[in-house]
Amino acid sequence: MIVVVRHGRTAHNASGRLLGRIDPELDEVGLEQASALALAVGPVDRVITSPLLRTRQTAAAFARDVEVDERWIELDYGEYDGVPLGEVGPEVWARWRSDLEFTPPGGESLRQLGGRVRAALEDLAAEEVARAEAGGAERTTVVVTHVSPVKAAVGWALGVDDEVSWRLWVAPASITRIAATARGGVLHTFNEIAHLAT
Fold first, then answer.
1. For the domain that residue 103 is a member of, what is the CATH number?
2. Fewest beta carbons within 10 Å, which of 80, 104, 172, 186?
């Protein structure tokens, strides 16, 4: 099972800013969310993380030994990184939503992000399928990542285009479970947040 989780909250998330390659740490709530997340998922065999600090801090709640995979880094928002959502003009949002190739100045398109996330998932799936065919026991791999890669992972599991990302909402410290089979990914759960209830 591939368990794709979004990192815990940061001050940037809480203030409603686009958060791509800027590298803030988790805030106090985010650290609590990371602990709750690890407890909810339970024992894991492998932890993979984006290289950014907020994901590495979240991954540390699962294990001391983690693998960093650059393909799970957040979308590069370029000049919009750190900008409040309300300050991005409606014409920009319209272009972004209608064109998967739209690239923020100095940034990355959703199509590019989707390509790297799908490649990472294909690699993980191939390993899991080979393991199963060899008679190995199922293992749990946690991937700690960001909102846009979680959406791309769901698109991969469902076999749909990256346009689906505009129709998904992903909470901080949420859990999405995807099984890897010889026929492709199978979405088991999406955006689990019951562990965050207070």
1. 3.40.50.1240
2. 186
Label residue 35 exposed, middle or buried (CB < 10 Å: 0-12, 13-18, 19+). Answer: middle
Active site residue 28: no
User: Out of 7, 12, 74, 108, which one is annotated catalytic?
Assistant: 7
What pLDDT sits at residue 140?
Answer: 94
Catalytic residue among 25, 70, 87, 133: 70
Q: Report the number of distinct structural domains present in the chain.
A: 1
Cβ atoms of residues 128 and 45 within 8 Å: no
Q: How far apart are CA 59 and CA 198, in angstroms?
A: 22
State the pLDDT confidence band at 198, using cuts at 50, 70 and 90. low
DSSP 39-56: HHH---SEEEE-SSHHHH
Element (H, E) at 126: helix 110-133
70 is catalytic: yes
Q: Residue 91: which domain range?
A: 2-196
- 8-49: per-residue pLDDT in tens? 999 888 788 888 999 999 999 999 999 999 999 999 999 999
Q: What is the bridge-based pairing of β-strands 184-192 and 175-181?
A: antiparallel
Residue 153 pLDDT level (bands cut at 50, 70, 90): very high
Read off the pTM.
Answer: 0.94
At 87 the pLDDT is 92
